């Protein structure tokens, strides 16, 4: 490479740097505009919605678990119950979630990368507990009532 070629190359690099800087400035402006629109939309759209984390937190409190244990491989009864009912409530109230509909796979990811078949088993197990255990049914109904109060703005 001779001196003339090197000079041309450095000029092209300089032009590319200027184009990149201009693109970054435009991107920054677009990002700010998108963030502003999202905040406006979310504030309006999420008035009668609930975050998945809120449902998980309600179940953790109701069953005496903690947010780490509910996502771990813990087989302690209170952790399993909290996990089962959080999964059931996420599926049952998915039309009220701030993030929109969650697939079985997405729900599984919330709970420590569990498979969709594990989520199905959890849904079946929680329904069985509701059908056979008065305490579990009452706790579940209490959680449903709390969620409905939240999404109805009360």
CATH superfamily of the largest domain: DnaA protein, C-terminal DNA-binding domain
Residue-averaged pLDDT: 85
By DSSP (H or I, 4+ residues per run), the number of helices equals: 7
Name the overall outline: elongated
Return the structural class. mainly alpha
Radius of gyration: 25 Å
- Secondary structure: number of strands: 0
Tell me the span between the first and last alpha carbons: 74 Å
DSSP strand content: under 5%
Please estimate the helix content. Answer: over 70%
Low-confidence stretches: none
Provide the domain count: 2
Largest sheet: none
Reported by name, the CATH topology of the largest domain is Chromosomal Replication Initiator Protein Dnaa, Chain: A
CATH level-1 class of the largest domain:
Mainly Alpha
SSE inventory with pairings:
Blueprint: H1 3-45, H2 52-63, H3 67-71, H4 77-92, H5 104-110, H6 116-132, H7 134-151
Could you walk me through the main structural features you see in this protein, from its secondary elements to its overall organization?
There is one protein chain. By secondary structure, this protein is mostly helical. It has seven helices and no strands. It has helices spanning 3-45, 52-63, 67-71, 77-92, 104-110, 116-132, 134-151. Helix 2 (52-63) packs antiparallel against helix 4 (77-92). The model has no long low-confidence stretch (mean pLDDT 85).
In short:
This protein has 154 residues and is mainly α. It is 77% helix and 0% strand.
Please tag this protein with its features.
154 residues, mainly alpha, Chromosomal Replication Initiator Protein Dnaa, Chain: A, 0% strand
